[in-house]
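step: validate -> pass
step: tokenize input -> pass
step: predict -> running
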Amino acid sequence: MAKQHYPLKNQHLARALRREQTPAEARLWSRLRNGNLMGIKFRRQVPVGPYIADFLSRQARLVVEADGGQHGEQEAYDAARTRFLEFRGYRVLRFWNHYILTDIDAVMEAIGEAAHWGAHEKNPDARR
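step: predict -> pass
step: emit ->
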């Protein structure tokens, strides 16, 4: 299968999104950055094909999405996006912004559990 190239506009959009993050994204990023979660590296606003993942860990094969109110109106788009990412081997976790802002510890616990298993799926011997 030939590699598809997506427009540079995705890279420019990702940079803009990193500069203009929401309060929920900022809070989540402060907990995910620099390997703060179990030493697992996350990047933010990462182009993946035609989409941009809010937070992505290649090591854990995990995408974390911070969803605001607009996501209630774009369910079909989000479903297609999730299928695209899952087809490429990522597990997708979605959290409402309100939940991130009011119960960050529960959000981090869920992400940590998913990241742990995702990081170990690549290397089954690491579970021992």
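step: describe -> Confidence is low (pLDDT under 50) at residues 123-128.
step: cleanup -> pass
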